[in-house]
Design brief:
Layout (H helix, E strand, L loop, with lengths): L1 H9 L1 H20 L21 E2 L4 E4 L2 H14 L3 E4 L1 H18 L8 H17 L1 E2 L14 E6 L2 E6 L4 E2 H16 L3 H7 L10 E3 L1 H13 L4 E5 L4 E3 L7 H17 L6 H26 L1 H4 L2 H22 L13 H9 L2 H16 L5 H18 L6 H27 L9 H12 L2 H12 L4 H7 L5 H9 L1 H21 L3 H10 L27 H21 L4 H9 L7 H10 L20 H17 L6 H17 L10 H18 L12
Parallel strand pairs: 3-5, 4-7
Antiparallel strand pairs: 1-10, 2-9, 3-8, 5-6
Helix pairs in contact: 2-10, 2-12, 4-5, 5-6, 10-14, 12-14, 13-14, 13-15, 14-15, 15-16, 16-17, 20-21, 21-22, 21-26, 21-28, 22-24, 22-26, 23-24, 23-25, 26-27, 27-28
Amino acid sequence: MKKLLTRLAQYYHFFYIAFAFSAAIFLLYLIIPGESRFRYEFQKNAPWRHETLIAPYNFAIYKPDEVIKSEQDSVKKQFIPYYTKDTLVSLLQSRNFELELQGISGELPALKPETIQQLTSHLTKIYQAGVIAQSPEAHPVLKDKSELFEVSDKMARKIPVSSVYSMKTAFQSLSDSARTLLKDQYENLNQSTNLADYIQANLNYNEEFNALELEKLINSVSLTQGMVQAGERIIFKGDIVTPDKFLILESLKKSYSIKQGYNMDRYLLILGKLILIIACLLILILYLAYFRPEIFREKRHLSFILLLIILMVFSTRFVSQHDFINIYVVPLAILPILLRIFFDSRTAIYALLVTSLLIGYFAPNNYEFIFMNIIAGIIAVFSLDKLHRRSHLVFTALWVLISYSVVYLALSMIQEGNMEAIRWEELEWFAANAVLVLLAYPLIYIFEKMFGFVSDVTLIELSNTNQPLLRKLAEEAPGTFQHSLQIANLAEAVIHRIGGNPFLAYAGALYHDIGKTNQPAYFIENQSAGMNPHSELDYKDSARVIIDHVTYGVRLARKHKLPEVLIDFISSHHGTTQAKYFYTLYKNENPDMAIDPKEFSYPGPRPKSKETSVVMLIDGIEAATRALKEKTPDNLKTVIENMVQQKVDDGQLDNADLTLRDIRIVKETLTEKLMNIYHIRIEYPKENT
């Protein structure tokens, strides 16, 4: 059983890869639509590169979207609104008005029965004409309308808008009629009654009913403009896809998507889609396994790449299902930007290619979509060679906008053949895409916390000497702090020349000796003249104190939640070497005693990256050259050669990805920099008195 568990542990990573790969395939299968694809790809004003196409069945020729939209807009503009007439309002208000006038007729001699009848009849005529709540000019529904439908007793009749009263004009008409009939006694009538109380809207706008009627009219707009008969030739091989032919081909493609459920084996569709998804992910996995094994071996890195691809495919699929949003608003360039920041340019571009191919399966105008997004993504990767300030990402977003716009205009010129036919409004979606690219900045922080990544921005922040740990080092071990600064500057210069991340090397060098804050006085750079606490310890205890600065530094770094990439510098800057000084002294004093070298050895591990290897080399070389009495060029070269060769012979660089060329550049750079640091200064003459 134990042997089985051991073997399972050895293959755990492969089991995880298989699980992650299967989960990604399953999720992508759910996201990507399952309908069959039209077998032909074509471009407007480009040659037809397939065989001569014959219509396989009868199908209608669909109108262009802009024509359909124009006709529907025309229907909306010509639509005559419906107003429901409430006949009870006229009966009730006229009756109440008549009773009111009869009640005050004793006080007003001019209100004779015939006058009351005339005023009541006038109010009835107003209601017969119709009263609406607002004036037609102020009513949005009646704007630019000359007629409306009056619905009464389930019958609709068309009447001029000019014949309808608003509540204001109805009151004015009734008031004018009363003034004409009553003359001098009109003011007395106003004091006895309020004419406005008998004015009420009896034409009501039913929004739901009008919406249904308008929808019926819009739906009645024909979407087609002719038919193509089965067996009819559509286009010859090599013919140019003219706008008319393009319309017919698009109609065939649309009718194919409608008929796709007939006479098709559902299982074959499922199998085909699975094969496409597996093929896309497989080339990504193979790329990582062969060319980026450091990413392939790290579960977090592999999970992050697959998750990012799935999120991008899902976002694009979600947007493509909503007609009011253009698919190009999805900031696909975020994917290569994030991978460029956390990994490298090649991985970013390769993942972009895989993602574009997956989305291209269901994106409209597949070729255009894939072409435009790959160009914009590659430009984004090349433009973002560094991310030290927020302005770098802003410039990258600007380059994405320019890339999309230029490629879109180029393709439109080929397809349309004239500038007037280009849909300039599409540029607005590209601008929105560029703005959304700026979301990469907060996403960097989120993914750093989720997956434990470290970006250049974070490294620059951690390199600030006001960080708590660095401030602690400067106050408690000032000599070590100056030593760390020296190592950081030298490591940054070397990494710039051999390649690598100079920000990582600089930050790692600053923190590599943070463990010396535990007992700073036991390290020579922090000791005052004549004071050496090692004189009170035996050699084993002294070696243990020196070695413990590595293990204590790791604990301190984890306590302050430093990234693991920086902790690697702390744990590996001495590798598995020995505390040579105390080991040699102990060996000289006990020549006949068996000595366990592990008691004087650092716990390791040995450095694995260029950055950690360089810091290890510089750490030993800087300390050795500082101890030289005569810092001449020859002495410096000799020390550097010996120290590097010693590390090579001891196997400390066996796991590092340093080449012989890199080691040569390291030695040359350190010789140059240290000669500049320890250059001979002139002696100033004394002034004669």
